[in-house]
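Course exercise 7: structure representation. Students receive a sequence record and must write out the corresponding structure in token form. The form below is the worked example handed out in class, using Type II secretion system protein F (421 residues). Read each field label carefully; the graders check that inputs and outputs are placed in the correct fields and that the protein name is recorded exactly as given.

STUDENT ID: A-19
EXERCISE PROTEIN: Type II secretion system protein F
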Amino acid sequence: MAVTKNAARRAAAKPAVRRADVMPTFIWVGNDKRGMKMKGEQQAKTANALRAELRKQGITPTVVKPKPKDIFGGAGKRITPKDIAVFSRQIATMLKSGVPIVTSMEIIAGGQKNPKMRDLVNTIRTDIESGSSLSESLTKHPVQFDELYRNLVKAGESAGVLDTVLDTVATYKENIETLKGKIKKAMFYPAMVVAVALLVSAILLVFVVPQFEDVFKNFGAELPAFTQMVINLSKFMVKWWWAIGGFVAAIVVGFIMAKKRSPAVQHFLDRLVLKLPVIGKIMHEAALARFSRTLAVTFAAGVPLVEALETVAGATGNTVYEHAVKRIRDDVAVGYQVNVAMKQTQLFPHMVVQMTAIGEEAGALDTMLYKVAEFYEMEVNNAVDALASLLEPLIVVMLGVIVGSMVVAMYLPIFKLAAVV
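STUDENT ANSWER:
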């Protein structure tokens, strides 16, 4: 009886061992039937197994060796949201074409340049081969596949329309990543203006102004107040540059840590960003676009409305909107219509509320929300392009003012001396 139990225990443990196995990658060189040289890389259990597989394909292998590991940590490349978006589109396309999911995963893994992404796809494939569903295997990777992604896949499996849902998820991920790129572009330009202005000022104060100071010492005359102020600032920078650099670094690190660890700080910053003159409008529209598209996708996939709102709250990208969506969820859970609950938050524009009301009345909520998402995504796109066009000349003007002011400060004593002579 003990032997039987031990055997059962070993049998139960085998799938777990198999999940952990990831086949090594080999580089091969060979000749086809025409004598043409061919080469490539492929995963296989052993080199001999790969040789046998190549011979079946009509290729005579001459070299089969393990692929060397990257010296500079290529395996350490992180998996980006863009990698997940591309993966989503690939798996959706293959399933729609009738390719079995395990075969699809094998093909996708073979085309991955990011080693970590390739390992992730292979792990998912191994789990599916061992009997897990796609949603179950994705649950083991919550960092790469968020709750929304997993819920949509699970809903697709339950309804028997996994290929259609994955196609929707792929489109959703692509649109969201495009929107994120636009938001980053909008935030990058103001930051770049400030950074360039500070860098140019620091270079002039530390390296250029001291050269003029040596010349002014021989004048023996009192320097203009503006020139003296710039020289004093230069002396301070040269003497305390290390303290200034450390202070700035401490401020940046402290800001990042506080933002990550303190919900109150995050909420304060999100509210502050929404109130900024130009950036605030873009962030408002971006949050509305995310909310509308995410709710449309989850609702269209068959996820219950209250559960969909729970998932959508964290996908808005702003804690102010996140709290508002959670309030909408609570109101909908006790019987309110979505448009009425949205209106109570006093955060959603009249157009969004009206479109939602029409969608609920016509039984086409997801369709109306898709239209709202497309409208605000276009608004964000136009606003970012306008901001870029506005800031390009502004950067030139700011740099001109900074450099011009310092040039004037340095040449004022020379003008004064020339007037005396």
